[in-house]
Design a protein that fits this description.
Layout: H1 2-9, H2 19-29, E1 38-41, H3 51-66, E2 70-75, H4 85-98, E3 107-108, H5 113-125, E4 129-132, H6 136-142, H7 160-172, E5 181-184, E6 199-203, E7 217-219, H8 221-232, E8 236-240, H9 247-257, E9 265-269, H10 281-289, H11 304-310, H12 314-324, H13 335-349, E10 351-353, E11 355-356, E12 359-364, E13 372-378, E14 388-394, E15 396-400, E16 420-423, E17 428-436, E18 442-449, E19 469-470, E20 472-474, E21 479-486, E22 512-520, E23 532-535, E24 539-543, E25 553-559, H14 563-568
Parallel strand pairs: 1-2, 2-3, 8-9, 10-23, 12-18, 16-19, 21-25
Antiparallel strand pairs: 4-5, 5-6, 6-7, 11-22, 12-15, 13-14, 15-20, 16-17, 17-18, 21-22, 23-24, 24-25
Helix pairs in contact: 3-12, 8-9, 12-13
The protein binds one RNA strand through helix 6, strand 6, helix 8, helix 13 and strand 19.
Length: 569
RNA sequence: UGUCCCGUGGUGUAAUGGUAACACACCUGGUUUUGGUCCAGGCAUUUAAGGUUCGAGUCCUUACGGGACAACCA
């Protein structure tokens, strides 16, 4: 209670510390690693970044900011067959877009291959590593199971000289893939599987995207990661929960290879899971390769580039990451929280415009045929400085087909014969009738307007209260646009958790809906790529970056909250 | 039937042994020229059972539940 009051008095909105911050503050208090805070974000360049990575990015970079520390970007590129510079480039672009900058130049684990090799030699000389000639299958078999201890390899007690010779020849390319590996000599009976003589190096005659053919042996993650942290002076190596059991191994390498007081510290937090989406890079890659989506930046993808193209803002993603918190228990964040974050941000900044997605013609019978006028409308009622603009009004308009109903229930606040509604920023109109074709489809709606009810005119008539306000565009002046509406990619609330089922069985076939007969107000002809708008009563939309076609394309970022459609159901 | 991690509303995250708080979602009502926004209100005795204590979500024990670990992936 007292604490809270103090915080409020200071105007300090400082939230309580998450468990990582508590660890750091404890370390700072004890002057661990000279009181430095140095984090890192270490992606493998084998795919595009997704919203889960964004959580980790926000965590690592903000921690560095909070504690006057540094945060590195390091590409964990130890497996050449999966990695590519395309991914390196996209990862850097996405981090920058999110609003963070890494310390100095990007780092690469491949930059440390020589040092890692030297350290491996040292381990051999210390009798703590050996070359094993057995096949992967045999080694796996000897490893035992979580409940059964492993057995030792017959090559485990080779002489140091022989190990040194063999390891040198491994590097020299004398052996084929899989013929030999280097293993750490730890404990085949350890209850922790990762301590049962883990592999340090494997032979891969593969070209690496940065080192080319300079190497034919590549270090494994467990060996390379902690040592790379050490080289870079990382103090807090924050990773996800599945690496928790790797921690003793991380510490084993650091302890056995270094003599300084400085030691990087690995800590783990729960990865992000989002309802109705998959988050594993393997699955996302499959969606791309099998053309279930149109690339990594498809607006339905939970990738950073997909969210960007969909119209999400960096601030909204940062706020989301902040809101979901950091803890160690498994979680599934409801997708609606992400939607809330983007609405909250866009509501403050997005220009209000009018567009009609499913048009039907509205004819104002008592409005002169050749008359047209410009009406003034606020760009954003949330923002006084946003100004206003002029939009054209005429006798024939498009309105939303859903905004008309012939036999309407009492609670229907839109257009229906005999009731009045306001056309936003224009006049109050009284609906008269709907005209239909032979099949009974409504082709046009007729109404009359009250000339004295013009918005902002200050007249008594303009102040009259009507229940509904409709958005519209002038037929003569409207710009034609294509609008893409995205729904969730999966039907199942947690497709990631369905282990025994192919996640693709939950794909939502209606996740993309392209509307081609849409009309928007003429000012939008000049809209720039990625610019965001709020279409009155419809939602937030952003201009697609795809300028290969002449078409004006909008992606719907997110709908507006709609209490009417909820009531209907 | 091993080791490690984790159990607080529908979903997340807080609560430093002292009145279970905040956000999302949901439900009421009010304002509104967007059925948006905004405003007001409602919604959990913390997996269970013991124990320590004046006092336990918090410490201890046991049970139950969930997760991770047996890639020459990261």
């Amino acid at each position: 209670m007292d604490n809270k009051n103090v915080k409020e008095e200071n105007g300090n909105e400082s939230k309580s510390l998450n468990f990582i911050q508590q660890i750091i503050e404890e370390d700072l208090k004890n002057n661990v690693n000279d009181g430095r805070v140095h984090t890192r974000f270490p992606p493998e360049p084998n795919g595009y970044l997704h919203i889960g990575h964004a959580k980790s990015i926000c965590l690592n970079f903000s921690l560095a900011q909070q504690y006057q520390g540094k945060c590195n970007l390091r590409f964990d590129d130890t497996n050449p067959v999966k990695e590519d510079t395309e991914y390196v480039d996209s990862i850097m672009e996405d981090i920058k877009w999110l609003g963070f900058s890494w310390e100095g130049d990007p780092h690469f684990t491949s930059d440390y291959f020589e040092q890692l090799y030297d350290w491996a030699v040292k381990l051999i000389k210390d009798g703590k590593a050996y070359v094993d000639d057995q096949s992967a299958a045999v080694i796996a078999d000897q490893k035992g199971t979580p409940t059964v201890p492993g057995t030792e390899s017959p090559f485990r007690n080779r002489s140091i000289e022989e190990n040194l010779d063999l390891f040198t020849r491994m590097r020299a390319g004398e052996f084929k893939d899989g013929e030999k590996v280097l293993r750490a000599k730890i404990d085949m009976a350890s209850p922790n599987m990762h301590m049962r003589d883990p592999l340090m190096y494997r032979i891969m005659h593969a070209s690496h995207h940065r080192t080319g053919d300079a190497w034919c042996i590549y270090p494994m993650y467990d060996y390379a990661h902690g040592e790379s942290d050490y080289i870079e002076g990382i103090t807090h190596s924050i990773c996800t929960l599945e690496f928790e059991v790797h921690r003793p191994l991380y510490e084993w390498f650091v302890t056995n290879l270094t003599e300084t007081d400085y030691k990087p510290k690995q800590r783990e937090f729960a990865r992000l899971n989002l309802s109705y989406t998959v988050m594993s890079k393997r699955k996302l890659l499959e969606l791309v390769k099998d053309h279930h989506v149109n690339g990594w930046d498809d607006p339905r993808m939970p990738t950073v580039s997909g969210l960007r193209r969909r119209g999400f803002t960096p601030a909204s993603i940062r706020h989301f990451a902040d809101t979901i918190g950091v803890a160690k228990r498994n979680n599934v964040i409801d997708y609606s929280l992400l939607e809330h974050c983007v609405r909250e941000d866009l509501n403050k900044t997005a220009t209000r415009v009018m567009g009609v997605l499913n048009p039907v013609k509205l004819i104002i019978n008592n409005y002169p045929e050749n008359q047209e006028e410009m009406l003034n409308i606020d760009n954003n009622p949330e923002d006084e400085n946003a100004g206003s603009r002029e939009i054209p009004f005429s006798r024939e308009l498009y309105i939303e087909r859903d905004d008309f109903m012939e036999d309407a229930p009492r609670k229907f606040f839109r257009m229906t014969p005999g009731r009045e509604v306001r056309l936003k920023a224009a006049y109050i109109v009284m609906c008269e009738k709907a005209v239909k074709d032979e099949d009974g489809n409504i082709t046009e709606i007729h109404c009359t307007y009250d000339p004295k009810s013009k918005s902002g005119s200050g007249s008594e008539e303009s102040k009259r209260k009507v229940k509904g306000t409709l958005h519209w565009v002038s037929v003569k002046h409207a710009a034609k646009a294509e609008v893409r509406i995205y729904d969730r990619l999966f039907n199942h609330e947690a497709p990631d958790a369905q282990k025994d089922v192919d996640f693709k069985e939950f794909l939502n076939p209606d996740s993309l809906n392209i509307l081609t007969e849409c009309y928007v107000e003429p000012s939008l002809k000049d809209a720039k790529a990625e610019e965001s708008f709020q279409f009155t009563r419809l939602g937030y939309f952003s201009v697609d970056k795809d300028t290969t076609s002449e078409k004006l394309i909008f992606n719907r970022t997110v709908s507006l909250k709609d209490s009417w459609s909820k009531k209907k159901n």
